[in-house]
Every structure is written in structure tokens, then in C-alpha cells.
């Protein structure tokens, strides 16, 4: 639809109006905002974020985001990563100088340093106890997942031209928001006398 909306003429408006549920409200957004925003972009207008599973039937749930490359604060991927970082910081109860962003960047450096060793072993399998095959594979998968998230945070810093300190400030603000949210929900679930 966005590709069609980049060519704003009566014919394309007629084609799009056949498919729209409420053409009077959605067509101005599609042609006036989205068509102009993505006029120079050949494709890739959306991003899909998997957010978990529905409770009743465990069907996968996803949020489809229309990209806004000029405003990182409105970017859903940025917000979801901030929320994950804040949740990890709250879960670890990090205080003082030990901040979650510094820990993640240090873990990237640790993997890079250990992968440069000449013994040929993988940085994900090094220093793991080899008790049984299942436990070993699970530990390796956890390390790989954590490393993928750390690389995602590193790319986030690079793409949005943020320093580790600036990202940590935003993570701290999100921690305060999450703490306030958990306090308000726990207060609302308290029985009243």
C-alpha cells in the first residue's frame, strides 16, 4: 500500500480505496504522510517485533511498526531494547558504578578478546563445566543469546550516535518508570478494608 501511495494520483487512490476498511480516515494518512515519508525508499517500510505468546492459546504475538528513521525516541525497537535493559538492571539490582550498559559492553569485549586466542576453542564454550550434554548445550545457548543482545545494544549505540553514559541515563529513567509501574499495580491489587 505504501509503494502505491508514493504515486499520488486519482488512479492509485481508487486502487487503495478498494482495500481500505475506512478510506476516509486512512487514505489521508497513507498518501499525505507515509507516501511522502518513504518517497525515496525502495522498500522495507515496516519492522516486526515478536513480543511473546498469547495466554489462552499460546499463539505468537507481534507488533508491526512503521519505521520513523528521523526520530529514535519514537522507534519501537529502541523502546523495547530500553525496556529489556531496564528489566535486566532491576533484576540484577545493580547499584553504584556497576551499570547494565557497562556490563554488556564489557561482555562484548570479553568475547572479542577470547575469540582472538589461538587455542581454537569457541568463546561460548570456554570455561563451561561439561557435566552432561543437555546442561552444556543450554549454557552455550544462553551465552550466545546474551551475546546477540549485547551486539544489538552495541549497534543501537552506533546507529543513534549515543554514548554508553547517555544510554545508561535513559535506562535509569526507564527503570524508574518500571518501578513506578510495579508500585502502582501492587498498590491497586492490595485489598481495601
TrEMBL record:
Keywords for this protein: Ribonucleoprotein, Ribosomal protein
One example of a Gene Ontology biological process annotation: translation
One Pfam family this sequence matches: Ribosomal_L17
InterPro entries in alphabetical order: Ribosomal_bL17 (IPR000456), Ribosomal_bL17_sf (IPR036373)
Domain of life of the source: Eukaryota
Similarity comment: Belongs to the bacterial ribosomal protein bL17 family.
Protein name: 50S ribosomal protein L17
Organism: Zancudomyces culisetae
Amino acid at each position: 500500500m505504501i509503494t502505491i501511495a508514493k504515486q499520488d494520483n486519482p488512479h492509485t487512490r481508487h486502487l487503495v480505496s478498494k482495500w481500505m476498511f475506512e478510506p476516509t480516515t486512512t487514505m489521508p494518512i497513507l498518501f499525505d504522510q507515509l507516501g511522502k515519508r518513504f518517497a525515496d525508499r525502495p522498500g522495507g517500510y515496516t519492522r516486526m517485533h515478536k513480543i511473546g505468546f498469547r495466554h489462552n492459546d499460546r499463539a505468537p504475538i507481534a507488533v508491526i511498526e512503521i519505521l520513523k528513521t528521523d526520530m529514535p525516541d519514537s522507534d519501537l525497537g529502541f523502546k523495547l531494547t530500553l525496556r529489556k535493559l531496564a528489566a535486566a538492571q532491576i533484576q540484577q539490582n545493580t547499584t553504584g558504578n556497576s551499570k547494565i550498559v557497562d556490563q554488556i559492553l564489557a561482555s562484548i569485549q570479553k568475547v572479542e578478546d577470547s575469540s582472538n586466542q589461538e587455542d581454537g576453542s569457541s568463546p561460548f564454550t570456554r570455561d563451561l563445566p561439561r557435566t552432561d550434554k543437555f546442561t552444556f548445550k543450554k549454557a552455550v545457548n544462553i551465552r550466545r543469546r546474551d551475546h546477540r543482545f549485547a551486539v544489538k545494544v552495541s549497534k543501537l549505540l552506533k546507529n543513534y550516535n549515543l554514548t554508553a553514559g547517555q544510554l545508561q541515563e535513559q535506562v535509569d529513567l526507564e527503570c524508574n518508570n518500571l518501578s513506578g509501574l510495579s508500585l502502582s499495580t501492587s498498590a491497586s491489587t492490595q485489598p481495601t478494608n
